[in-house]
Amino acid sequence: MHYFALKMLIGDRAKYIGIIIGLTFASLLITQQSAIFAGMMARTFSFLTDVGLPDIWVVDPQVQYIDDIKPMRDTEVLRVRSVAGVQWAVPLYKGSLQARMDNGTFQSCVVIGLDDETLIGGPPAMLQGSLSDLRRTDGIIVDIVGAEGKLAKRQPDGTRTPLKVGDTMELNDNRACVVGICRVTQTFQANPVIYTTYSRATTFAPPQRKELSFVAAKVKPGENPDVICERIHRATGLMAYTPPEFKKITFFYYLKYTGMPINFLTAVALGFIVGITISGQTFYNFTLDNLRYFGTLKAMGTTNRTLLTMILFQATIVGGIGYGLGVGLASAWGSLLVGRTQIAFQLPWQLLVITAAAVMFICLSAAALSIRKVTKLEPAVVFRS
């Protein structure tokens, strides 16, 4: 019976292609917009993603997300180190400073200050130079996207020359010399990222009584990070988070206080509605056009259960093809643009499952309309003409 169901489905080429186009568009739109949303949200905690060595992040109790910097006293590093179970703890600075280029233009940059002794928290990948070069006088490391984009030198003819090792700039009226180029995960604001030492970063930044942004800590082997976080909180009064917990806090902050979820969910809902409207209506019309065949099968003794199986089989075929084409097009689109543009695109397996569930629901909804019509069909309708 599946063979006959497939012949009926492919026999009407126009409706067959129309159903697949509707499901492909729905799958493409749902996957694409969900992947862009996931990529944008991943950028909100990109700093945590790049700094993978610490097990614990210690911050001021009033911090709501990763970029909500509440400076602490430098002595907090020593207090964290004194907590039982902590293997090491280092200071980190993170702030937004204005960089002044040679031509007098200004650009906001994310400046990250690493522990002078260990340089823990450095960029995940160095393209030019080495991390130890930060110990050179006025040394900074710039991310490749910023070096080729917003920090590139503008020539008199309007062209841009990428920032390179040896070039200089000013950070808050302090000279800074580029000693390396790195690759990092792009930030949510898409600002250039600059690495330097902690002492130099606090020199670049406007003077203030408290300058410490984070304390990054490592737990001793065999210790539970969650238990150590609670110890740090009791001993210092500061909040201590594991990286996954800090990412979760940041994610839900942006989810709650920004309009991104509504914007992307609207686009996803549009794809879902289009899929149901186009595919459902086309599949229902396809069933109406083939009622005489279903009636014939019913007159020959075919049960409603068998007819139900045939319709579900048809829905599964078009759903699988539409899903595959839509996800494939979305993945190809993302692969072409990621790395070449500033667009955020991240396609974890969970999104593929969500898209598959959405397409399945669209197909089952379309099949439900057809099933109702077929099960109520009287075999005698075939012979009325």
What's the short story on this structure?
With 385 residues, the protein is an alpha+beta fold.
Describe the structure.
With 385 residues, the protein is α+β, with helices and mostly antiparallel strands. The chain has 2 domains: 2-43 and 259-383, no CATH class; 56-241, no CATH class. It has 12 helices and 12 strands. The chain has helices at residues 2-11, 13-44, 46-50, 76-81, 144-148, 198-204, 225-236, 243-257, 260-289, 291-299, 304-337, 349-375; strands spanning 56-59, 86-100, 106-114, 125-128, 139-143, 153-154, 160-161, 168-171, 174-183, 193-197, 214-219, 239-241. Strands 2-3-10-5-9-8 form a 6-stranded mixed barrel. The chain has a two-stranded antiparallel ribbon with strand order 6-7. Strand 6 and strand 7 form a beta hairpin. Helix 1 packs across helix 11 (304-337). The two termini are 25 Å apart.
